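Researcher: Please generate the 3D structure of the following complex. Treat every line as part of one assembly.
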Amino acid sequence: MTGATTPTVSDAASGRSSIQARLGDVIFRRLALGAGVTILVALAAVAIFLVAQSLPALIADPADLRGEPESFWHYVAPLAFGTVWAAAIALVIAIPIAIGIALFISHYAPRRLAQPLGYIIDLLAAVPSVVYGLWGITVLAPAAVPFYQWLTENMGWFPLFAPPASGTGRTVLTVAVVLAVMVLPIITALCREVFVQTPVLHEEAAYALGATRWEMIRITVFPYARSGIVSASMLGLGRALGETMAVAMVLSPSAIISLAILTPENPSTIAANIALNFPESAGLQVNALIATGLILFIITLVVNSIARAVVHRHERSLESR
Amino acid sequence: MLAPRLALGALAALVALVVSGCAANEIGREVLPGSLIGTLDGAGSSAQSAAQEVWIATIQNANGGLTINYEPSGSGAGREAFLAGGVDFAGSDSALSSDELDGDFGSCVEGTTGIDLPLYISPLAIIFNVSGVDRLQLDAETTARIFRGDITRWNDAAIEALNPDARLPAATITAVHRSDTSGTTKNFTDYLAQAAPDAWGAEAADSWPFGGESAQGNSGVVNAVTNGLNTIGYADASRAGDLGIAALKVGDEFVDFTPEAAAAVVAVSPLEEGRAEGDLALDIDRTTTEPGTYPLVLVSYVIACQQYRDPEIAALVRGYLEFVASDEGQAVSAEFAGSAPISDDLAARVLAAIASIR
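Model: Done. Output below.
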């Protein structure tokens, strides 16, 4: 009797649970699909808004734009240059330091020191950008003035350090240092994650061949982590390109394209230019600012695609090895 | 048994919170019933925001049923919102342009326009931080050449000629302007364009027409001038703090900045021509040689409808602006926002225009 009933109960139970599982599957699949579609719709909506609002500025008489440039492209070129320039200098400063910190945490520091250090680096990422901006104008910029003057006086022949030196220290270099501090935690955290994942077998094999610790890192950790370092740097670049508040507060901008990084006149960035001019703009000037936003959108898209391509190619070459 | 008791306790705590919240709001305030009841929304000039705040706080204390909101979103944004009918009044550092006057006004009766009321006069100061120099005297031409970058050293002959008693260092001048678009820049460049057209060589503009060092906002410029080396800049006089303020040459004498001298230049300035009755856009005469006038001022307007679609809103706007234009209203903004009170003569004209709002 019991033997006859038990299977039916368990059958019914398993049948019900499989229906439930199927229902759960369906619901979850729909939710995941919905989430995936949402991001695409949001991106498309942003792109449509940018293009629609930019058009009036792109076809308008450039004499109606702020500063009366020859054309819209003359207006946006220094801004696009400044955006990429400041972010690039920031990365040049940040990447070596970030890799150094990540290596120290993953391979050199004793465990008791490594963990708290990791937390502190993560904490840096949580500081809002206004705070970095305030630090930039009240501490970093005034402190850098004598150093900048010395550089322009003694190394002015080098295009980057061309005189005159800024009297307030609000230069592209100061901005780049602030940006570097801001992107440091992102790059460090990601690099650390990748370095830790280097297969122990590889590392031990390197030691077995008589490698020192530095040689081991060079022949096992770096090749393994290269694509991770690139993607970490690109995430950092994304933040540096879009940073608004800190740049607007710290930089002394002009509508110029210049490689000198210590002068009073610096190319501004797109995001900072929008923040500085939007409140007092009206009509076509607003359209022009949105059009520069469209250019920033395109720049970030291109930079990210290049980064993807680099990472992808490297992954392929790792697999084929 | 436990659950109801808990709920009761929570309710009691909530009531206590709400009651104490009300009480905290009203500490030190005497809220009078007043005759103005309703809500007004305004937006615009951030230069006016401190003055608007104190005007609103004062009139709301006198009228318990009145709520006024002012969003300091910037002059351009404020005018745009007013034209679209989103706000009942706007604050703006420049008067309505002829294009805007030809267009539609969302809150006004069709066929009528907005009017400009000069209610906020803010003196601007040329601030400097030069080692060993306490007093600096400048005329418009020298100022223009300093800010254009034509004069690059503090001991330049042009500056020394104006300051025979000062010991000027042989240091590079760092002239700091605003990096954001602002009414302050527009009025400063207007002064240079009017008083030294040849040396300046540009028109008045709300964004800086030349290169040079710059910083964001009044506080950014003050910060850069304070922390920089041998710097000079311009900012709202109320923000100058301990920095030196240059005296300006008017006629044959040097005028130190005072609120009275700033109000005096507005008093001698004519109205812009070709404006409708009640539209008091001023044509600030910065070339005046009248003794005791300080020509570097920013005049910010409150823009309202001549005829509102909603008569109740019109009554509220009239009540609010009558207070703002009154001696009391101008006195509180002078005390808390550092503005210069408008002259009696101008106040009478503004009050007449306000009385015509329907």
